[in-house]
Structure formats: C-alpha cells, structure tokens
Design a protein that fits this description.
The chain is α+β, with helices and mostly antiparallel strands and about 100 residues long. The chain folds into two domains: about 40 residues, no CATH class; about 45 residues, no CATH class. It has four helices and three strands, in the order αααβββα. The protein has a three-stranded antiparallel sheet with strand order 1-2-3, covered by helices on one side. It is elongated and about 55 Å long.
C-alpha cells in the first residue's frame, strides 16, 4: 500500500532530484517516480513556495502614513526589507523567497 506523501516530503524529494545532477527523466526512471507527479512540486520550489508549510506565518507590513513616495518595510522574522515606490515586482518576489528561506 502506497502512503500519500506530504508537501514537505515532496519538497525533500525535489531537493534530492535537484542535487542529483541528473535530468528529470533519468532521475525519475532511477527512482521509479512519475514525472507528472513530481513536476508540480518542482514548480513550487522554483517559484519560492517550498518554504510554505501547512501552516502559514504572516510577517509585519509597515505602510507610510504621510508621503506616498516613501518606502514600505516588510518584516519577515528578524529581517526587514524596505521597498521604494516603483519597485520591480519580480525582484521583490525573488528577494522575499530568499528571506523566507533564511528565516
């Protein structure tokens, strides 16, 4: 009987694949895992969602009260990220992924 794997177990499996140096097809063949089963978890890891657990943790968001050109501060754990007006959303997403992995 196959036991259903949790999201964190799949993330560990994806990390094992990523560190193997093999192509996805070769690694899946070697491990007996279907590519279509592991692929959504690879995408989650690549999109920085691997650190999200079953339980969500919210950070503190500080919004400026007076000047619309001011930066906002995003606090995740002990790390604070300041974001200025006109920021690049993709860069912010990548920075937050790194910050979340550090916390």
């Amino acid at each position: 009987m196959n036991k259903r794997k949790s999201k964190s177990e799949w993330m560990d499996i994806v990390k094992e694949f990523k560190s193997s140096g093999l192509s996805l097809a070769a690694w899946c063949r070697q491990k007996g895992i279907c590519k279509t089963t592991i692929y959504p978890y690879i995408k989650m890891l690549d999109n920085g969602q691997a650190t999200l657990s079953e339980e969500q943790h919210w950070g503190k968001l500080s919004l400026p009260k007076t000047n619309s050109n001011s930066a906002i501060s995003i606090k995740v754990g002990s790390i604070t990220v300041s974001v200025n007006n006109g920021f690049d959303k993709q860069v912010l997403s990548e920075v937050l992924s790194v910050v979340i992995n550090l916390c």
